[in-house]
Automatic annotation (TrEMBL):
Residues 4-221 form the ABC transporter domain. It comes from the Bacteria. Pfam families: ABC_tran. It comes from Paenibacillus protaetiae. Keywords: ATP-binding, Nucleotide-binding, Transport. This is ABC transporter ATP-binding protein. The keyword ATP-binding applies. The keyword ATP-binding applies. Belongs to the ABC transporter superfamily. InterPro entries: AAA+_ATPase, ABC_transporter-like_ATP-bd, ABC_transporter-like_CS, MacB-like_ATP-bd, P-loop_NTPase. PROSITE patterns: ABC_TRANSPORTER_1, ABC_TRANSPORTER_2.
Length: 221
């Protein structure tokens, strides 16, 4: 079953009176439970594609269906709801709130979802245990290594039980050891049935996925 379906997706930017295609009729699908890497050099269009996949932006042409719902014609509020319910985000820069503990950072999206305190606590503790950080619940980001911060970010992304995990250069700010630990964690999550879409420019990182989609100059190579 395809959880992500994109057909003829195009995205244009205008500058100096000219129109440039950042994405040029992209068609792809990701099936439930797959671990897919989207690989390409800087400027290839992979970040724009990620933004559309993550309901952070909309295409100028084509059709995007996420978990059976047509995203292409959704309003901003509907897109926000899809992001909150269907997608877990992991970014290169972690995006943790520095004044909050690891536990509080993981709990935050559950507060936005209106979950009860007992539900939030249970889910947050389970996710931090799943990423191997149950001993660091009260540590703030500044008290954690880069690899540990990224694992907190992964726990936060998983806390809402999303349909897909969208990871944008998740090892880009890490040294090789911490990067390998994060990739091993993603592989473990995939083995447990998680659908993962990984955005990367790194051949070695992309090789950890079960399928690689190469993008160059806005098209699938």
């Amino acid at each position: 079953m395809a959880i992500v379906e994109m057909e003829d997706i195009s995205k244009f930017y205008r500058t100096g009176g000219q129109k440039f295609a950042v994405l040029d009729h992209i068609s792809l699908e990701v099936r439930q439970g797959e671990f897919v890497a989207i690989q390409g050099p800087s400027g290839s269009g992979k970040s724009t594609l990620m933004n559309i996949m993550g309901c952070l932006d909309q295409a100028d042409g084509g059709t995007y269906t996420l978990d059976g719902k047509k995203v292409s014609a959704m309003s901003d509020n509907q897109l926000a709801d899809m992001r909150n319910r269907k997608i877990g985000f992991v970014f290169q820069s972690y995006n943790l709130l520095p004044g909050l503990s690891a536990f509080d950072n993981v709990e935050l999206p559950l507060i936005y979802q209106g979950k009860r305190s007992s539900e939030r606590r249970k889910a947050s503790l389970e996710m931090l245990e799943a990423v191997g950080l149950s001993a660091h619940l009260r540590h703030k980001p500044s008290e954690l290594s880069g690899g540990q911060q990224q694992r907190v970010a992964i726990a936060r992304a998983l806390a809402t039980a999303p349909s897909i995990l969208l990871a944008d250069e998740p090892t880009g700010a890490l040294d090789s050891r911490n990067g390998a630990e994060v990739m091993s964690l993603l592989a473990k999550l995939h083995a447990n049935g998680m659908t993962i879409i990984l955005i990367t420019h790194d051949h070695q990182v992309a090789a950890r996925a079960e399928r690689v989609i190469y993008i160059r100059d806005g098209t699938i190579a």
